[in-house]
Amino acid sequence: MSWLRRLSRDRNSSKGEQDLPMPSFRPSSSYTGNNQSVPYKDTEYPSAQASQDMISSYRRTAMPQEQQRVASTQFPPGTAGDDATMLTPPTNMAAAPDPLTRAFNEAIKPYLDQIDLLKNQLDDMKLQIQDLEDERGDIHAWIDKRGLRADVPLNVARAMDTHTEAATTLNFQLDRKMTMLNYDLHRLQDNVNDTLPTATFVQTLSTLIPNIERLAALAGGAKLAFELVIKLGGNLNSHGDGNTGNEADARSKADFYARLDETMVDVIRQRLEQTEEPSWPVMRDVKRIEKTGQYLKSNLGVQSYFPRSLDVLRYEAKRGEGQQGRAPGYSP
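^ that's the sequence the OP posted. Answer follows.
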């Protein structure tokens, strides 16, 4: 009777699991022998603890099948519910900005719009500046074509002197203008059938001196200005009848040569500061000026012809034998 009581106790302990099918148990290898199966006996049941473990294992394997059965019952195949069970949230969806970031973006939006507006205005101004520069280039070309560079206002002259060929162009136009003035003075004198006073020639030729000084300040322009100063003095000597007894004419001529001498000293200083290839043969120009001065003194009564300029040139010729190397800022 003891086995009946044990059987009743085991059945009572598993009364809550009567709705689940009981697993079938197979005898272990301890019940087999000589490779013969031992008949299964209904009275051979495992212990209570083993039964609980087996029931739990069965529940874990049967639960997914039960959930799938319930889902298929609620959502038949082909309906939206079937697809809903397979949906997964997208991974590339951008997160919504937090309130602080959204408020910051809204606060700076007017300033960003203003920055874009200013950028557009800046681009428009650049285009306008380019158009103005093109127009300025056309005007400068028109001025040079007609040889009017020496007659432009000072602010226009500064802009034109920034070009690389400014010295050569200005020298060419000054030389042509000097020739034209000299020709006009001769024609005027022929038309009046009388000798014009020297002061008239001096006043006309003196208008070229500021432009010669401007030429000397340009890169490579001092050498060209040196020749223009000597030519300007020679143009004055070509006018007049050679009468040296007129004191007014002699005084006007002396004042003009004194001013030319001051200009020549500045031109020499700037020429010594510039580099020339080949080097400047100073002694050759000294002899040339001395020879012209002797002629003017004996024939036209000119007592001094570039006296200060000759002193500077002689000193430089003696010091370096025509070689440059004077430090910038040198002032004789």
